[in-house]
UniProtKB/TrEMBL annotation:
Keywords: Ligase. Pfam families: GshA. InterPro entries: GshA (IPR011718), GshA_N (IPR042520). NCBIfam families: gshA_ferroox. The keyword Ligase applies. This is Glutamate--cysteine ligase. GO terms for molecular function: ligase activity. The keyword Ligase applies.
Amino acid sequence: MQTLILPLLDDILASQADKVTAWFDARFAETPALPYASVDLRHSGVKIAPVDTNLFSAGFNNISRAARGRAAERFKTHLARVAPDGRRLLIVPENHTRNLHYLENVRVLAGIIEEAGWEVRLGSLMYDLDEAMVLETAAGADIRVEPLRREDGRIGTADGFVPDVVLMNNDMTAGAPSILVDLEQPVIPPLSLGWYRRRKSGHFSAYAQVADAFAEEFDVDPWLIQALWHQCGQINFREKAGLGCVARGVDKVLHLTREKYRQYGIESDPYVFVKADSGTYGMGVMTARSGEDILEMNKKTRHKMNVIKEGALNTEVIVQEGVPTVDLIEGESAEPVIYLVDGRAVGGFYRVNKGRGEYDSLNAMGAYFTQMCDEVEPRIEPAGNGGDAPCPFRVFGVLGSLAALAAAREQVI
């Protein structure tokens, strides 16, 4: 009974395009979209599902020039809703002064918002920054990052620039920056969605509701557009505390996945990813094929799983159904990454990782990025996409918009 998910969804989009658009419009009217997001997808041929949603996207430098133009138009719409009379915006980036590719992302993001008609400055959270700092990006361009000053509930740069909107491009793993708490100016995304507080389990709980509603409306098995998952807390990998919960979660997700595999005639063995319930950068991730894999974890793996970004302890995890990727770029395993602004897909790219296979996490050392086709710029169609459509971008975009809608709902669930 195997089905190919890309042709199935592409047919829905071709035959019911207006209905799909109206469905999203109605739901984003109820729950307005966040400013931006990037969504990692995994596509097995039979199913396609979001497996991570980042609300502080750090790869705008990897999307095409046409995608940047679409992003500018969507930012124009979003910012007009946030601050109708505003024209000045402050981006607060990560403190990654040595990550040149991240700095190029900041430069491109600033350029996109300038194209949307806003004056943009960059303000640093580094406590010891006393004067403006010029940094060179991976493209050899310069960006100017300035110290922040707060006065009477308003934030600005030390030289007197006072923004109408503050845009976070810092995931706040270590906590909400005190200098930005309770500002008069709108801060987007809100500080409460930083990784110090946000949880992947909360996101995927919201996503399950969104995906189930979409699947019911358009007569699709919801399993085909989402990954099964289970959450465990109170974990200490170093001391082996709480690993029994993780092992039981692994066996539970594997059992449910096997049932779906039997339904669809899939003969391969299922597996899971065990992931930190907060944070990005591919940290705190491992694979498992049985609960025993967790209970028998060696010291090196427990050490890797114990700490995530900025030295934060990994005390909560999700066990997520593994979706093997069939997408290949020049013979290497790849996965789509979709970029959204104001809830709508504007572009994307493929993450490729030499030396990693269809069952592995590709968000790891050795990853590189290559352009994705879209309706305007047909470039690369991955091998193994299982369909006759010349470009899967619009299908990927719908999955991304479902994840963006779920992200917006995280605040209200």
